Amino acid sequence: MPEVGVVIAAGGRGKRMGGTLPKQFLRLGGIPVLQRTVAAFHAIRDVRTIILVVPPGHVARTRTLVRRAGFTKVAGIVSGGTERQDSVWSGLQACRGRADLVLVHDAVRPLVERRVIVGVIRAAGRYGAAVAAVRTTDTIKVEAQRRPGYFSHTLPREGLWSVQTPQGFRFDILWRAHRKAHKDGFAGTDEASLVERLGIPVRIVPGSERNIKITTPEDRRLAKSLLKRG
Fold it and tell me: How many of the other CB atoms lie within 10 Å of CB of 48?
């Protein structure tokens, strides 16, 4: 079996939700969001190494959280960069030499399910690149570039997916993708967008409607409701 590493990163410098703490340290059902996120991956047998990328100034707080939770698979805690892409690159460097496959996951997606994680690991091992995603059910319209505030056209829903994390790759593929993006000055919206620039197809793995990203107070309330449902 390939060695699997996980980079769990916050977006940018760890945006806050109207308070003083970055969102991943807020409590969800009495437990910090980040702790719930790490626990989901720590429980997967194939995951051997976890690297945490946290906002500058919060390494010590994270180290305490990891120690109290008993997360023995956490092999490194590093400070993130200005943008999410910078943070993931920092995590990749800390993970280099520790894994054949690497998963990248948002720190504020604490409700990711085991089947999704395992599905991405298996697909990444077989195809080299895989992401969790759910089919888009909303109608998606494109704003007119020459006339802001108005739509120019509507995209057909068939074939549209809303991308989640984890996103999994052979380590060498994601390393090359980040190196090329840095060289070209390209900023992607996710790791898959960097890998696609190498001409490598990315396999779709069915995600979950529970796997929400907590970015607003409304998201947090929804996550609490999902937790109560079990």
Answer: 17
Asked whether the beta carbons of 103 and 168 are under 8 A apart, the reply is yes
Q: Could you give the CA distance from residue 208 to residue 40 in angstroms, rounded to a whole number?
A: 14
Element housing 174 (H / E): helix 171-184
Tokens of 112: 């990711």
Number of H helices, E strands in the chain: 7, 11
pLDDT in tens, 172-218: 999 999 999 999 999 999 999 999 999 999 999 999 999 999 999 99
Which DSSP letter does residue 24 get?
A: G
At residue 223, the pLDDT reads 96
Place of tokens 């943008």: 83
Q: Quickly tell me which residue has 């604490």 as its tokens.
A: 110
Mean pLDDT of the region 24-31: 96
pLDDT at 20: 75
| Both structure tokens of 139 | 């109608």
Distances (CA, A) of 151 to 140, 144, 145: 10, 5, 9
Q: Is the pLDDT of residue 11 over 90?
A: no
**From start to end of 18-128, where are the E strands?**
27-28, 31-32, 47-54, 74-79, 101-106
